[in-house]
Amino acid sequence: HCLTSLRETIKNGYPAQKLVVIGVTGTDGKTTTAHLIYEILKAARYKVALISTVGAWGPRGFADTGLHTTTPDATILQPMLKKFASAGVTHVILEVTSHGLDQHRVLGCNFYAAVLTNVTHEHLDYHRTFDRYLATKAKLFKNVKLAVLNKDDASYGFFKRKTAKKAQIVSYSTLGLANIKATNISQKSTLLSFLASDNGVGHLIKTPLAGLYNVSNILASIGLTRALGIDWKTIQKVLSHFAGISGRMEYVKTRPFSVVVDFAHTPNALEQLLSTLGANLSPKGRLITVFGCAGERDRTKRPLMGEIAGKLADISVFTAEDPRSEDVNKIIAQMVQGARKSKAKELKSLGMHLGGGRLNHIFIREPDRGKAIKLVIGLAKAGDIVVICGKGHEKSMAFGKTEIPWSDQEAARKALTPN
């Protein structure tokens, strides 16, 4: 990848040198933060482009960047940057993964700024240790002029030390002192509101972007855009109508029970999501979740995610999620180990156990994702929240070496349609 990146950078005439490139990295929240920055810059009349997990947006609209990748290969990325520069784009927001950094896919990107969301348990199949994972993420901050860091994250001190000596550092926090901080946080139904302040002056933020964890993503985008000199009024206006992106707490149905599709595929993201949705339940409502863990990826997170679901969801259904060459039932068995640790009980037949009201937490194995989604929607009653996790915006599922067309949203709609 290193030589490919160098070759592509030279071949395309060092396009990043003509652009202000902003990198957004972290375990969770990258995509939402990158999209927020993009929307704020666009509203401030910047000529801006975005390359994220969902795809790429430039002057000519949307382009797909490839399956299951966040940071595209240099053979796609460098020509794309060249096109953006030729079209008069001045700023590019690039979602950057640890894989992309480790494989030198972003070599030659000449980052002006880097934003960190958080660093939690993920990709240890690839990086082997958490320290290596941290060190890989830190590469992004080595030569930047501006770094936006999460003071609430345990990694804050590490990234502060790893950031270029002459860089401006902007910190953000929901807990205490920072350059950009949030107070008076309130989540009511689909409205999130809080006071965001820099230099001690508070500005009211109201947004339909659901989930308390999104306060940090919003603060990260504010930290970056304020450092670029964008006024609060523009930021507030964008946030007032930013409802989120495809597959990020996306409501497919709201009455009489809710069906939500979300990309959560890490222990941290799953815990944040289930906690947020659980807090919004009606008194008799149940939280019902369905998800799997990817094959040929971090095996250590499987029992952790099973345990989180067993603890926070009333009913968990464990299923397939990009099994690749692994046996789905073996992956599910590892998730079950964690669910048992949470004291959740396995339900082997559906019988009469699933009447109204709260249940002692249970889990069910259903390796077929389509059947699993049909099952959870069939179990839902008024006031329940059904959350389908792991795939989000993705349009395919990996079995062996084959990508099969798949959409959680479509599967949910199909299950909701009476035969």
What do you see in this structure?
The chain is of the alpha/beta class and 419 residues long. It has two domains: 240 residues, Mur-like, catalytic domain (UDP-N-acetylmuramoyl-L-alanine:D-glutamate ligase, 3-Layer(aba) Sandwich), CATH 3.40.1190; 167 residues, Mur ligase, C-terminal domain (Protein-Tyrosine Phosphatase, Chain A), CATH 3.90.190. It is built from 14 helices and 20 strands. The protein has an eleven-stranded mixed beta sheet with strand order 4-3-2-5-1-6-7-8-9-10-11, with helices on both faces. A seven-stranded mixed beta sheet has the order 12-13-18-14-15-17-16, with helices on both faces. The longest helix is centred in the first third of the chain and has 14 residues. About 1% of the residues have low confidence.
Topology:
Blueprint: H1 2-11, E1 20-25, H2 30-43, E2 48-52, E3 55-58, E4 61-63, H3 74-86, E5 91-95, H4 98-102, E6 111-116, H5 124-127, H6 130-138, E7 146-150, H7 156-162, E8 168-173, E9 180-188, E10 191-198, E11 201-207, H8 214-227, H9 232-241, E12 250-253, E13 258-262, H10 267-279, E14 287-291, H11 301-312, E15 315-318, H12 328-341, E16 345-346, E17 362-365, H13 369-379, E18 385-389, E19 396-399, E20 402-405, H14 408-416
Parallel strand pairs: 1-5, 1-6, 2-5, 6-7, 7-8, 8-9, 13-18, 14-15, 14-18, 15-17, 16-17
Antiparallel strand pairs: 2-3, 3-4, 9-10, 10-11, 12-13, 19-20
Helix pairs in contact: 1-3, 2-8, 2-9, 10-11, 11-12, 13-14
